[in-house]
Amino acid sequence: MAVTTTLRDGIAVVTFDNPPVNGLGLDVRRGLAEALDAANADDAIHGVVVTGGGRFFSGGADIKEFNTPRAEQAPNLHDVIAAVESSAKPVCAAINGTALGGGLELALAAHYRVARRGTEVGLPEVKIGILPGAGGTQRLPRAVGLETALNMIVSGVPVAAERLDGSGLFDALVEGDAVEAAVALLRGRIAAGAAHPRLRDRQVEHDDAQAFLAWARMGVAAASRHYPAPPRCVDAVAASLRPFEEGIAVEREGFTVLINSPESRALRHAFFGERAASRIDDVGPDVKPRPVARVGIVGAGTMGGGIAMNFLNAGIPVAILETSQEALDRGIAAIRRNYEGSAKKGRITAAQVEQRMGLLTPTLDYAALADADLLIEAVYEEYAVKQAVFGKLDAVAKEGAILATNTSSLDVDRIAAFTRRPQDVLGLHFFSPANVMRLLEVVRGAKTVRDVLATAMAVAKTIRKTAVVSGVCDGFIGNRMIEQYARQATFLLEEGALPQQVDRAMEAFGFAMGPFRMGDLAGNDIAWAIRKRRYVERPDMVYAKNADLLCEMGRFGQKTGKGWYDYQPGDRTPHPSAEVEAMILEQSKALGITRREISDREIVERLVYALVNEGARILEEGIAARASDIDVVYLYGYGFPAWRGGPMFHADQVGLYNVLAAMRRYARGHRGETWEPAPLLVELAGSGRSFNDPVARPRAAAA
Ligand code: T1G
Questions:
Q1: What pTM did the predictor assign?
Q2: Which of 39, 138, 268, 289, by CA, is between 20 and 30 Å from 300?
Q3: Pairwise CA distance, residues 436 & 188, whole Å
Q4: Regarding the domain delimited by 478-702, which CATH topology (the fold level of the hierarchy) does it fall under?
Q5: Which atom of ligand 1 is nearest to 61's Cα?
Q6: Whose CA is nearest to atom 10 of ligand 1?
Q7: What is the tens place of the pLDDT at every residue in 125-157?
C-alpha cells in the first residue's frame, strides 16, 4: 500500500511508502490526495502529519515517469501540493530522512515542518537538467532567504538540516522521531488556536536583491555554458521577489522548457545509466559479495599508488609491494605527497593524512599479502611480468582471496590461467589518475565466478567508483573504442586537417580535450606500442603512418617537450609545430592525396561515429551488457560531454538512420574500408530503433 493513515488523538499520521526512495509517483500522489481529502472530511481529525516511510522522506518526483503520461496524470505533484497548502486542517511534514526535489517541495507546502537532526534536504533538479517545478523556487526563498535558496537550487547540493536551523524552514529540529514531535507540535498549535502559516504568504527580503541577482547571473552564466538549467534557476528564484502566482508562472515556464531539453534527457540518461551499470543480469541480490577487509597491491608506481589511495580513503588497510626498497620508498613518498597536496588545498586534514598513511604497509615480501581479501596487480604491461606476479600471488594468497589485474590491454583469461584459481580472477581496470577518475572497468573473465563479480561491484561502491562490467577483449570497452576514434583522427590529417583543427572541433563539440592534445598528455608512445603489437596480431587493421613517424621523431608528447604540438619547459600550453605540419603535408604528398578543406562537422562525425560503430560491435559481442554502460564509460572515463549523454545516446538523438547514412558517405572516401557498419547498427537503423531502446538488446547478449 503506497499510503497508510494512522490516528493519534485526533491527528492523522499519513505515511507514504514507495521503495527505494519514496519517489512521488502516481500511486503515492493519489494516496496522499485521498488521505488529505479523508482527513478534511472527518470531524474527528484536527490535523495531519505527512511523513515518508523507510530511510527517505522522499527522493522527489519519480523521474522514471518523466516524459510519460503518468508524470502529469492527476493528481499530479502540483495538485497534491495545492491540496496540502489549502488543507483546512493544518499539515505538518515530519522529515525523518532525506527530502529532495519534489519531496522537499511537498514539505514546503505544509504549514509546519519538523526534521530529525542528521537528515538532509535539497533541490537537486538542476543536476538532471531541470529546475524545481513544484513551487520550490518560490517557497524555499520565502523559508530560508534569497541567497541560501539560490545557492541550494543552482548547486543542487543537499544541505544538512542543522545548517538551516533557525532559518525559518523548520519549526523544530529533533533528536528523535520527527513524527512524534510533529504530532505534539500540531496539537499545541491547534490548542493555541493559531492561524496556520503558509510560506507563500511570506515576502522575500533582501537588502540589495538586484545587485545580488546580477552578480549571481554572471557567475552562473560563466559556469554553465552548455547547460540551460542553471540560468533558468536564477530567473525562477529571482521571480520569488514578485507576487507568488507570478513567480510560479516563471517557474512553470522554465520547467516546461527544460524537461523537454536534449540536455535534460541526456543527464537523466546518465543518472539512470550509472545505476543500471551496477546491475549484472546473472548476478542478482542473492549473490553475496565476499568481505574485503584488507587489500594487497603489487606495484607502487603511478597506478599502484593511485589505486592504493582509493582504499586508504575508504579506511581499508593496504599492503603495497615493490621489487626494490628504492621503488617502494618512491611509491610511498608519492602517496604522501598526494595527500599533503590535498591537505594544503583544505580537502582533507593533516590528521586524515596520517590516518590514511597509517593504514598503508609497504613491503618487499609477498608473504605480507597472505591475509589480503583482494589482491590487485598494477605492474608492467607484459605477459611475462604478469605471469611471474600471478604465480607468486597464487602461491601466497589465502583461500577465497580475489586476484585482480589492472591491465588495460592484455587478455584477462590468459592472466587468470597463470593461477590455479581462475574462478577468483578478474580485471579491475582503473583509469589514471586512479585516485581521481571515477570510472572502473570490471573485466569479467570466462571463469570468473558470480560472487567475485558481486564483490567487485560492492568494492567499487565502497571506494566511490562508477563500475561498468566489460567482457574480455582487446581494450575492453573504453580503450577499444578510443582506438577507432584516434585512428580516424590521423586519417583526417592525411586528407587535409591539422592537429589543432581536429582538437578545436572536438573541444567545441564538448570533449574536455581533443585527440592530439590527449595523446600528448598520455604519451604517444603508449599507442605506438599497441600499434606495433597490432601490426603483428591484426595486419588487416590499417593505420596512418603519421602517428608512427611522430614517435620515430621522438615526439612522445608533453613528457618529451614535444609531440603533436611543441611545449615550452614547465608549460602545458600546446603550440602548433611547423615540423609536425611539414611531416603531415609530406605524408599527404607521399600518398598522392590532394589535401582538402575539411569541415568541423565532418571531423566530429567521423570521430564520434567511429566510437559509435565500435560501440555497436561491443554490444553485439556482449562485451557490454547495454548501450548505457558504454555511455557511462565515456562520460566517466573519457571526457565525453555530459550534456550529450554519451556516444550511444548521442547517436540515438541524431537518429541511427542518419548516423548510418553519414558512415556510408565516409565509406566512399579516403580510408573508406574503415567504415564497415556494425550489423547491429544496420539492423537498428533499418527498423527505426535506438541503441538505448529497452528491446534493443542484441541477440548474442540476450541469449
Ligand atoms: N525517481 C525515480 N527513481 C529514483 C529517484 C527518483 N527521483 N531517485 C533514485 N531513484 C532510483 C535509482 O535509479 C535507483 O534505482 C534507486 O532509486 C536507488 O538510487 C517537481 C520534478 C535519492 C540520494 O534528483 O539523488 O522532484 O537502480 O542508487 O545512493 O521539482 O538516488 O535501484 O533501479 O541513487 O541511496 C529530484 C535523485 C527529482 C534525486 C538516493 N530528485 N536521486 O541515493 O540510491 S525531480 C532527485 C538521488 C523532481 C520536482 C522535480 C539518489 C538518492 P535502481 P541510488 P542512493
A1: 0.92
A2: 289
A3: 52
A4: N-(1-d-carboxylethyl)-l-norvaline Dehydrogenase; domain 2 (1.10.1040)
A5: 26
A6: 21
A7: 999 999 999 999 999 999 999 999 999 999 999
